[in-house]
Amino acid sequence: MNRPDAHGKPPESLRAFYKTYQNISISTLDRDEEIVDFLQEGGGADKNTIHFIRSTQSSSLPAESLILADHVTVPPEPQSLSPLKVFGHCDFPGLEIIPSLLSPQVQRNLLSRLLHRDLANEQHTTNIHTHYQVPYELSRPETPIALDVPGEEQSCDANPSFFRSPPSSTLPFKPLSPEIHKPLSITQVLQRKLRWITLGGQYDWTRKSYPPGAPPAFPEDIRGLVHSLFPNMRPEAAIVNIYTPGDTLSLHRDVSEEADEGLVSISLGCDGLFVVGMDEKPNSSSHHMVIRLRSGDAIYMSGPSRHAWHGVPKIIPRTCPKWLEAWPASQLRPGEASKSKSMDGVQAEGYEAWRGWMATKRVNLNVRQMSNRPYMVGQSDD
Q1: How far apart are CA 185 and CA 196, in angstroms?
Q2: Can you give the pTM of this predicted structure?
Q3: Which residue intervals of the chain are DSSP H helices?
Q4: Could you give the angle at the alpha carbon of 103 between the alpha carbons of 99 and 109, nearest 5°?
Q5: Which contacts (CB < 8 Å, 24+ apart) does range 137-140 have?
Q6: For residue 291, what is the enclosing H or E element?
Q7: CA–CA separation, 163 vs 140, rounded Å?
Q8: Among 6, 5, 29, 4, which residue's Cα sits nearest to residue 319?
């Protein structure tokens, strides 16, 4: 497969299409006939272009796809046992859309792994590192985190999280260039400034390449989850995007990997519009579409669609599922939660000061295989 230029520009017609949905009003979203929306009758858009590919019984998926917790076993929900439908589009061979792939329990557990443990891992670069020193001591408070295992407790070093630090914390994120940037508080970072985290291979956004040398180990539990759902690719690098309504992701192509195996994109939290398009060819009309993605939905881009242009022109406010809005706090209020199991494998009362953080967020996990070499650091040979 010929690898496109990492610094190339998207077609003008696709940029205009993207801008249309960047500027669309919330009140007209449900009436827009271009938007592929699987909660609308017929799936939205032209019924002749969207087609059913296959169905997979979720009960036949490996255990990792239903459980993602170190210390608590959560039984699958009744609705998770219904068939999972995979859809495609005639203009985008290799593109698969899987609505509601992850159950609520798995979504919440996955979110906790990404934004508690992995954000607090010093090997995982974020956009904050570009201009600031990150005070990792904020993620390791003196109070240990209680687990949902009677009689057991882990040290704070085993369960770090920036959300364990109260919003009132005065320990700043100090700028690398004080003459240019002002210090940031933990509230400023978590509420608005944090935009992305890299896992495994640490992508260089300026050079649009991966640095030489062995990358940090990819989180093993997340690797197992993604590989169990998409066995044709090997998770080696990921970018976790954190959005607030008003944020966008510009049109781009993921072309820096040596491998051409498919890309995985998993949505958590608020709905987002996802635009995808192909390069224009002589004497051919431009191919593009827009999909409304909800929490738990997944996109798989492979084959001819592996290097398709894609971006996120809009995050739709007030669409986070009710059961996820309170994260990182428990769904139940303090006192109510004391007699119930956490969905995250840890008691969530310690995060009460951040209750409702997820109500205004969309988190997107984007996973890819970096190379065709048989073994990568931190991965098994399966």
Answers
A1: 17
A2: 0.85
A3: 12-22, 104-112, 186-188, 220-229, 322-325
A4: 125
A5: 137/171, 138/162, 138/165, 138/169, 138/171, 138/186, 139/164, 139/165, 140/164
A6: strand 288-293
A7: 10
A8: 29
Report the Cα 378 to chain-centroid distance in Å: 21
Q: Which two tokens stand for residue 120?
A: 């607090």
Q: Which residues of 40-56 are buried (b: 16+ CB within 10 A; e: fewer)?
A: eeebbbeeeebeeeeee
Place of tokens 């195996």: 261
Which DSSP state fits 132? B
Q: What is the pLDDT of residues 158-204, one digit of tens each?
A: 589 999 999 999 999 999 999 999 999 999 999 999 999 999 988 77
pLDDT tens figures, 273-327 = 999 998 876 555 568 999 999 999 999 999 999 889 999 999 999 999 999 999 9
Give yes or no for a contact between 20 and 29, defined as CB atoms under 8 angstroms apart. Answer: no
Using CA atoms, how far apart are residues 176 and 182, in angstroms rounded to an integer?
10
Instruction: Give the separation between CA 314 and CA 292, rounded to whole angstroms.
Output: 10
Is residue 297 a contact partner of residue 364, using CB atoms and an 8 Å limit?
no
Beta strand pairing call for 263-269 and 362-368: antiparallel
